[in-house]
Write a structure and sequence with these properties.
21 strands, Immunoglobulin-like, DNA binding, four-stranded mixed sheet, Rossmann fold, nucleotidyltransferase activity, DNA-binding, 3 domains, alpha/beta, nucleotidyltransferase
């Protein structure tokens, strides 16, 4: 799907940011966005400050180019402060490794544009970030419009997904919920339902264009495994135990690479075949269907996201597993975002998808880290750089000592002429950074990292640069 057209304001220091600012302007305009720069947007005789204020007022995204000059510029600081005060979404871009970050932007994650060689890849990340952000804007009132969603479920084969009869009542509950002050930073949660997948299942789902219940992928048995499950929130207790690679000597099912799929809540919830629960239905044995029951769900507990007392523990953990269920399989028409955990896993998905499938879904795929969807408590690959003669790997270091090993770690590279190089350690203990060398010189190669026999990363060295294309 094409990205949403946006109004973009670029704040930069003229002395060292002009070249990148103009390049970004030209590339963003080619994608159809409207971009405002003070180099050529202010006619003679017009109040300069007022024009900047108006541009910020009407922008959807403000790009703050952080450089030596912008740090010293009072105008840049004023632009940043105004954008913050107006509630605009700000994406900082760092131009120099030693440039200071202004206090107004300290709390924001930034994109690292310090390496001009990687501009194309970084520009794609920027566009992905901007596109992903639009999904958090409140929906227009759809109380008189049908939800644009169809299901391919076996039990409702070839039927359009008409809405529930009490759809208007559901929407009122959602409007009231989204206005609750106690949501705070979780204010965007009630616009989505969440499900998480391991990498093989994600690849198959995107290729097939449908999401199947566990029973139909051979991953589970039982009554409830025949339903596609969505959660009202990320970071459920089940996800906590499933996320990341566990040591080889520890039992348990782990999703080494894990991605969240975010679906439009109204589209899923208002489907005539959908049901919902106030906990894991495999444990509660109950599901509900009407708006009157939905209104009674204790969302302050379902969305609870802090510490709790021993007396509260059982109730809160149960409610964090509250779900929306649809039978057998559904299409991806209501899919809004595919949220990867790290740059390394984003690149791996890119490598595992064929070109056609990647182009179909790429605008929905993000690896943003400024929203807390993942627990990040176990081992996974944060990023990797394939270069001449080897690969540099940065791991997410497990928080607990008992989760830091041992692992069976394999790194395999194959050159274009079929030569293979393998590095393996059977008792690997997690470290932050690892460098593995190959006698590949400058030959292009593809490579993969396996943890306990499961793919943890897939990448490629082109022989010319480290950029994945």
């Amino acid at each position: 799907m094409p990205p949403t057209t946006m109004n973009i304001f670029i704040s930069y220091g003229r002395r060292d940011g002009r070249e990148l600012a103009m390049r970004l302007r030209d590339d963003l305009q080619r994608l159809g966005h409207s971009v405002w720069l003070d180099t050529n947007e202010i006619p003679g005789g017009v109040n300069w400050a007022q024009q900047i204020e108006n541009a910020i007022e009407h922008c959807d995204v403000a790009l703050a180019l952080m450089s030596h000059a912008s740090y010293e510029s009072q105008w840049c600081r004023a632009e940043q402060l105004r954008a913050i005060r107006k509630g605009k979404r700000i994406i900082p871009l760092r131009l120099q490794a030693d440039s200071e970050i202004p206090l107004t932007l300290e709390h924001l994650n930034y994109l690292d544009f310090t390496d001009s060689v990687r501009y194309d890849a970084l520009f794609r990340d920027l566009v992905s970030d901007m596109t992903s952000g639009t999904a958090f804007n409140p929906r227009e009132d759809t109380s008189t419009s049908p939800t644009p969603y169809k299901s391919n479920g076996v039990s409702i084969d070839n039927r359009n997904a008409d809405e529930k009869r009490d759809a208007a009542a559901f929407r009122k509950v959602l409007r009231d919920l989204r206005a609750e002050d106690w949501l705070g930073a979780r204010a965007w949660w009630p616009y989505f339902v969440f499900t998480y997948l391991d990498m093989p299942t994600l690849v198959e789902t995107l290729k097939q264009g449908e999401l199947r219940a566990p029973a139909f992928t051979g991953k589970a048995k039982g009554r409830w495994s025949r339903y596609v499950r969505f959660y009202f929130r990320p970071r459920t207790p089940e996800a906590f135990f499933a996320e990341g690679f566990g040591p080889v000597n520890k039992r348990g099912a782990h999703n080494g690479i894990m991605a969240y799929l975010l679906f439009d809540m109204e589209a899923v919830l208002l489907h005539t075949e959908s049901r919902f629960s106030n906990g894991n239905p495999a444990q509660t044995g109950k599901t509900y269907k009407t708006a009157s029951y939905f209104k009674e769900l204790p969302f302050d507990r379902i969305y609870h996201d802090g510490w709790f007392t021993a007396d509260e523990k059982d109730e809160i953990l149960r409610l964090r597993e509250a779900q929306v269920l649809l039978p057998e399989k559904i299409g991806l028409e209501a899919l809004q975002l595919i949220w990867m955990r790290s740059q390394g896993e984003y690149e791996t998905l890119h490598r595992l998808l064929d070109a056609k499938t990647w182009q179909r879904w790429r605008e929905k795929i993000t690896r943003r880290s400024d929203y807390h969807l993942f627990n990040n408590k176990r081992l996974f690959i944060d990023r990797a750089i394939c270069e001449a003669g080897g690969v540099w790997i940065r791991f997410n270091l497990p928080q607990r000592e008992e989760d830091r090993g041992p692992f069976v770690l394999q790194v395999v590279a194959e050159t274009e002429d079929g030569q293979k190089y393998r590095w393996q350690q059977d008792d690997f203990t997690a470290v932050r950074d690892l460098r593995v060398s190959f006698p590949t010189e400058k030959s292009p190669y593809k490579m993969q990292v396996l943890i306990n026999g499961e793919q943890a990363y897939a990448g490629r060295y082109t022989g010319k640069s480290i950029v994945l294309v």
